[in-house]
Amino acid sequence: MTYPQSMIDDVVRLLGEGRSQAEISRRKGISRAAIHDWQCGKVPKRAREAHPPYERDRCPLIATASSPAYAYLLGLYLGDGTISKMAKGVFRLRIFCCDAYPHLMDLCAEAMTSVLPGHRVGRFPCVGCTDVSSYSKHWPCLFPQCGPGRKHQRSILLTAWQAAIVREYPKDFLRGLIHSDGCRSINPIRAATGKMYFYPRYEFTNRSQDIKDLFCSACDLLHVEWKVMNRSTISINKRADVAFLDTFIGPKT
User: Fold this and answer.
1) Contact of 133 with 122, CB cutoff 8 Å
2) Coil, helix or strand for 189?
3) Which of 30, 53, 204, 233 would bridge with 229, disulfide CB 3.0–4.6 Å?
4) What pTM was estimated for this model as a whole?
5) For residue 22, is it within any domain?
6) Residue 205 in 3-state DSSP?
7) How does pLDDT run across 39-83, given as a tens digit for each residue?
8) Domain extent for 228
C-alpha cells in the first residue's frame, strides 16, 4: 500500500515522541509492519529524496535523531567533520580520525551506522589520519551546521531540536567533542620547594568561538568547571572534575 508523505512524516514524528507502534497503528489505521519498517529507516523511496534547504527542518529523520549516538556524532562533526555535496543530490559526511587511535574510528563508524542504519560506512586513508565516511541525501538535514567555508569563519549554532538532544545527552556530546578536538594530558607543576607535581587535565582546542561556547555549555550542564587557557583552548583541571570525565571519556585509546 502507498502512503502519502504527510502520513509518513506524522508517523515518524509520533515515533520520535515515544509513542508505541501499537498506539500509532490504532490511531492512524496503519499496519504495524509498515510502522516498524519506517522506524528502522525503511521508508518509501520518495521519502528518502533529498530535501531542499528550506524544507530540511521538516525531514522525518529529525524526529528519530534523539539518541546518545547522535549526540556523540554531533560532537565529532563539530570537531573534525565536514559534509560535502556529491553527485545526484547525495552528501558525504566525513570525520577525520587520527590513526594513533583506531578504537575511536570504530566508535565513529558505530555512531554513523546507528544514526542512519543501512548506510555503508567506509574508511579512506589520508596522511596521518583516516577519513571515516558515510553517504546520504539527509546529512544536511541532520547536521544543518554544514555550509561553505571553514567552521571558525561562520556562525555555528544548534537548532532547537539539537539543543534538546545535547541537554538530554551532554556526556555523549562532550565525549564526541573531546574525542575529536580534545585530549587528556598530564600538567607538570613545580612547587616553591622545587619539587615537581603532575596533575591530569582535559583540554579542548578549536578555533571557532561558537564551538568552544557549545563545549563550555555542555560542561555547565554537567557542573564541570572549565577555564580559558588561550584563544583556542579550554581546560578542565580540577581533580574531581577530571575524575568525573574519566568515568565516561578517559584517555584516547
Assistant:
1) yes
2) strand
3) 233
4) 0.78
5) yes
6) strand
7) 777 766 555 556 666 577 878 888 888 899 999 999 999 999 999
8) 175-246
